[in-house]
Amino acid sequence: MHYDIFETEMGWVAVVVNERGVVRMSLPEPVLDQAYDHVRPEIERAELDPDKVSDVREKVRAYCAGSRVDLTDVPVDMSAMSPFFRKAREACRSIPDGETRTYAWLAEQAGNVRAARGAGQAMAKNPLALLVPCHRVIGSDGELHGFGGGVGLPLKQQLLEMERQHALVG
Taking a C-beta distance cutoff of 8 angstroms, is the pair 59, 22 a contact? Predict the structure, then answer.
C-alpha cells in the first residue's frame, strides 16, 4: 500500500491506495493531523509515495477547488467490506453530483428495504470520503444528518452547494 497527505483548498486530505484502488481517504480536514488520524491504521502498513497517488490527488484538488470533476472513475477497493456495506456504498457512488438520496433509498439499493439504519452506518463508517459521496445522503425528512470530519455538517452543506452550482452551470 502507498499513501499521500496533501493540502486542498478545503483542507488536508489523506489517501491510501493499493493495487486495486483507494482503500481509505479522509474528508478535507482543517488540520493535517486530523486527516492523518483518519487513515492511521493503513498508513502504518503503507509507504509514503506521492507518485502512486498523483491521479487521485489531482482530481481531489480540482474537486476541492470547485471544479466539476467526476470522481466515480477513481478506482476504489471495497473487497474487505461486508456485502451490504459494499452495495450501499456502490449505490452512493451512483448518486449524481448535487443530488441527494435518502438512507432508505440506499438500503433498498443494497437489497434490504428495512435497513435504513444499516445504510446510515455504512455512510457513518465510510472509509472512502468524497469517492463514496456520503454527503449526498440525507434523512427521510429531507434534512442533512450526521457527517464526519473535523468540520461536520457545514462541510456537507458546502459540498452539496458546490455541486449544485455545477449543475446550474451545466
Answer: no
H helices present in 94-152, as ranges: 103-109, 116-124
Q: Please name each of the domains of the chain with its CATH number.
A: 2-73 (3.30.160), 83-169 (1.10.10.10)
Distance CA 108, CA 99 (A): 17
- pTM as predicted: 0.90
Closest to 91 measured CA to CA, from 106, 79, 81: 106
**pLDDT at position 147, please?**
65
Would you give the distance in Å from CA 145 to the centre of its chain? 15
**Does 92 participate in catalysis according to the annotation?**
no
Mean pLDDT by 10 residues, the chain (170 residues): 97 97 95 93 92 96 93 96 96 93 95 93 93 90 70 80 74
The catalytic position among 123, 134, 159, 162 is 134
Report whether 129 contacts 74 (CB < 8 A). Answer: no
